[in-house]
């Protein structure tokens, strides 16, 4: 008799595929044993060959009439193994400013009293226009690289950011993709627990003035995400500004954290969160 927990295929050319005298109760429901992936935790009568291969030829666990309930009870363990394998192929790409660290240029604006410097990528979609305007203002006010680095030295990560990164790095590779610059990022790395930060670089003249900047590559965040994908990674992206949208929409999963109303309104399809706990839960579900 065949039912949902027992099936016997006596017409199979390999029946019975394991030595037994009780062919009437030989269960073919699990032709290939799902417990094989559990290694030495499967509970069966197995051995290992000299080359390390698991040999189950003497095991009857999947072929007993009552075997289904036992195997089904192990599915959570099997699922956990599959989940760990999937996570190895994911990578999380985080924006930096506004996500785990305060906006540097807003802090510079407050420190110098120059209101124009408070504009960020949340306000100006075209990054080159934003940076060209910043360099013009710095030159007009005779502000150099040390002036900005001094401001950065007094900034702490956003509350909860370090713990968020630590918890995230325990379960999945994490990289910070930022349109900031190496000269700004060095002290920030230490404050954030030394995550990998991929960013751009500034051109500094002999007098310590910022003469220009060089982008790491065109559309650096999108290009980097595409690069990870070409290596077999599934990307999960998190940002809050116009310059994050391309990497978010190109990723398997994408999220916004405390975005401005303009972006939230224009992109209601992108899940938006207000705190790290909710964001972390969403990322975990995407793995």
A few lines on this structure:
By secondary structure, the protein is an alpha/beta fold. It is 37% helix and 15% strand. It folds into two domains: 23-85, no CATH class; 90-286, HAD superfamily/HAD-like (Rossmann fold, 3-Layer(aba) Sandwich), CATH 3.40.50.
Report on the architecture of this protein:
The protein is α/β, with parallel strands linked by helices and 287 residues long. Helix 5 packs parallel to helix 7. It is elongated and about 95 Å long. The two termini are 41 Å apart. The strands form two sheets. The chain has a seven-stranded mixed β-sheet with strand order 6-5-4-3-7-8-9, sandwiched between helices. The mean pLDDT is 89. The chain folds into two domains: 63 residues, no CATH class; 197 residues, 3-Layer(aba) Sandwich (Rossmann fold). The protein contains eleven helices and nine strands.
CATH homolog superfamily of the largest domain: HAD superfamily/HAD-like
Low-pLDDT residue spans: none
CATH level 1 class label of the largest domain: Alpha Beta
In whole angstroms, how far apart are the ends?
41 Å
The main sheet orders its strands as 6-5-4-3-7-8-9
CATH-defined topology of the largest domain: Rossmann fold
Instruction: Describe the global form.
Output: elongated
Helix content: 25-40%
Order of SSEs, N→C?
Answer: EEHHEHHHHEHEEHEHEHEH
Main β-sheet description = 7 strands, mixed
Task: Give the percentage of residues in beta strands.
Answer: 15-25%
How many strands?
A: 9
Class from secondary-structure proportions: alpha/beta
Report the C-alpha radius of gyration, rounded: 28 Å
Whole-number tally of structural domains: 2
Q: Taking all residues together, what is the mean pLDDT?
A: 89
- Counting DSSP H or I runs of 4 or more residues, the number of helices is 11
CATH arch. level architecture of the largest domain: 3-Layer(aba) Sandwich
């Amino acid at each position: 008799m065949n039912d949902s927990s027992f099936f016997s295929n006596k017409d199979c050319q390999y029946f019975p595929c394991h030595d037994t005298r009780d062919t009437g109760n030989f269960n073919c429901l699990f032709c290939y044993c799902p417990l094989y992936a559990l290694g030495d935790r499967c509970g069966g009568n197995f051995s290992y060959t000299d080359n390390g291969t698991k040999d189950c030829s003497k095991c009857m666990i999947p072929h007993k009439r009552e075997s289904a309930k036992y195997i089904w009870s192990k599915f959570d363990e099997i699922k956990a193994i599959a989940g760990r394998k999937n996570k190895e192929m994911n990578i999380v790409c985080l924006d930096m400013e506004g996500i785990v660290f305060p906006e540097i240029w807003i802090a510079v604006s407050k420190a110098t009293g120059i209101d124009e410097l408070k504009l960020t990528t949340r306000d100006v979609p075209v990054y080159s226009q934003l940076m060209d305007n910043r360099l013009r203002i710095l030159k007009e006010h005779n502000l150099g690289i040390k002036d900005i680095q001094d401001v950065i030295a007094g900034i702490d990560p956003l509350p909860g950011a370090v713990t968020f990164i630590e918890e995230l790095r325990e379960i999945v590779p994490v990289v910070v993709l930022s349109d900031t610059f190496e000269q700004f990022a060095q002290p920030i790395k230490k404050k954030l627990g030394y995550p990998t930060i991929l960013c751009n670089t500034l051109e500094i003249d002999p007098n310590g003035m910022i003469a220009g900047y060089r982008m790491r590559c065109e559309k650096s965040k999108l290009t980097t995400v595409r690069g990870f994908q070409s290596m077999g990674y599934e990307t999960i992206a998190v940002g809050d500004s116009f310059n994050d949208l391309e990497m978010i929409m190109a990723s398997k999963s994408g999220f916004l954290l405390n975005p401005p109303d303009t972006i939230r309104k224009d992109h209601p399809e992108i899940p938006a969160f207000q705190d790290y706990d909710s964001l972390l839960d969403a990322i975990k579900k995407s793995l």
